[in-house]
Amino acid sequence: MSNEMNDPKLLICPQDSLHEAATNFAALDRTNLSYFIGLQVTETDPPGVLSGDANLVQNGRVVAAGRVDLGSNSVSWTRDRHQRMGNILMTDGSVQTAGRIAFTNWNGVACFPTNTVVAP
Hints:
This protein is an all-beta fold.
């Protein structure tokens, strides 16, 4: 990752008051991350969710750190960043702001093929 980014501060959302930026990539751990990573996504999966704000809520509970199978549920965000909204990075390179991510079908088409994420 350090070959692609100049500074690990990019891994912290400016509105994240719970995590602190790492001073270098060698010191980077889950306490220095604001974003989740989608595990079941490829660039040929439009509109796959590649990454997003990690302050997720599922079934009324904050999503714990680690590998999380979101199943066919929808998730939302806590109010501590972006006022219950979240930014998600899509496989096509776009970033979208949403109040909820639905991993269920919409008009018979899977909204997001990614349903397993790693949260810090």
